Amino acid sequence: MAKLWAGRFEKPTNALLDDFQSSIPFDQRLLECDVTGSIAHATMLGEQGILTMEDAKAIVAGLEGILADYRAGKLEIDMGAEDVHMFVEALLTDRIGEAGKRLHTGRSRNDQVALDVRMYALQANTQVKALLMKLCQLLLDLASEHKNTVMAGYTHLQKAQPITLGFHLMAYFQMFKRDVQRFEHAYDEADVMPLGSGALAGTTYPLNRERVAELLGFSEVTDNALDGVSDRDFLISFLAAASTCMMHLSRFCEELILWSTNEFSTAIMDDGFATGSSIMPQKKNPDACELTRGKTGRVYGDLMALLTVMKGLPLAYNKDMQEDKEAFFDAYDTLMKCLPTFTEMLRTTAFKKDEMERSAGLGFTNATDLADYLVGKGLPFRDAHHVSGSLVGKCVKENRALDDLSLEELKAAHPAFEEDIYEAIALSTCVQRRSLRGGPAPSAVEDSINRGRQWMAQHSEG
User: Which of 227, 31, 193, 197 is nearest to 109 (CA)?
Assistant: First the structure.
């Protein structure tokens, strides 16, 4: 295919460079955005009298035909084309003749590329948000189901205090809720129409940029042509949101992997989301979790790749910026695979309630409540902490639990103990008493779930 910009050159580009700089193997996925943006551009050119209405209508009809063929799977992409933008323009000219050559009036590939990527980013943010909302809904439902399921809470991967599974799940709801907000912000950053920036300094044609924004559904137009063609912050915001989201998925996966081990034995992966071993017949491996955990690293790499590409670029456009798309597409594709897989895996995971509660009774998770009991009897907290710690030490030596100790043994440690100590350090009591907003008490968790549902209703649109 002849280069549309070849007029200044006396010899063709070297085949090595053609292959090296070709982006159509990956940017062909921008074709719908490119054609849709060109339809809006041509419509505006006709309305402004920059093109005759006859040419504008011919261009629009030709572009609509290309789009229809593409959606029907009838369009053969020329992989020898330099990029998708040149492919579409050349194909249009081939189909409708001379009028096709007028499509590019008043624009540059620089602002055309920026437009296409922003349009694709809007779609990507919308689709990722929709998947996250499904995961958030599942977490709310599971948290409601398990708001009374007692389990051990951990710090340093050591048992700390009794909580509930519902409370634990709501911690992840908060993480993914913030992820939704990050993608909403990335959407807002992308929702600015750059066409009309030209190569870097706008154009002398009397374009109606606001009309193009209206036709394409953008909220506003860019306010500086230099920035309009050289800005990729909106992609960095997407990749940063994607990296944080993958980090949250990876943390959750790590816990599910631990819980499904024989040592924890508190979760059972559905057979549909596990694999076996070619040599060890007893194995049931949590591959969906492990792959998600592993893919987190590649999304981090996508973010670092684009940050590194952009860090030393003078204004305005540089060919380096062609490297934005593969990183963006890879992170997007990874999220679109990980989120639905993880959500369905979590939906089908069985939690062993009895084992969770039994495990919470080990490891002295009620030691803090024992100290709080003594504080209620008038002891300073530090003294109460010391008494509780000494009793834990005694139990460790004797392989007993705190509630195994007799009242006489407790009184020997401090006379303030009374018969009501056993009710005070029962796991259900330990959980129920932590009813402050944000706590693990079933009532507090229910309030948190209700607030979550209200938030979901507010963010389900747009």
Answer: 197
Chain-centre distance for alpha carbon 216: 25
What is the tens place of the pLDDT at every residue in 20-42? 566 788 889 999 999 999 999 99
Instruction: Dig out the tokens for 311 from the structure.
Output: 């860090």
- Quote the domain boundaries for residue 98: 6-105
174-218 pLDDT per residue, tens: 999 999 999 999 999 999 999 999 999 999 999 999 999 999 999
Domain tally, the chain: 3
Retrieve residue 27's tokens. 């940017």
Please check whether residues 11 and 139 belong to one and the same domain: no
Amino acid at 411: K
Which pTM was predicted? 0.92
Residue type, 82: E
Residue labelled with tokens 């050349």: 90
Residue 389, judged by CB atoms within 10 A of its CB (0-12, 13-18, 19+), counts as middle
Residues 391 and 451 in one domain: yes
Q: Which residues belong to the active site?
A: 156, 277
Residues 84, 190 within the same domain: no
- For 66-84, b/e burial (b = at least 16 CB within 10 A) is bbeebeeeebeeeeebbbb
Give the rounded distance of the alpha carbon of 450 from its chain centre: 23
For residue 63, which amino acid is it? L
pLDDT of residue 10 exceeding 80, the answer is: no
Helix (H) or strand (E) holding 216: helix 209-216
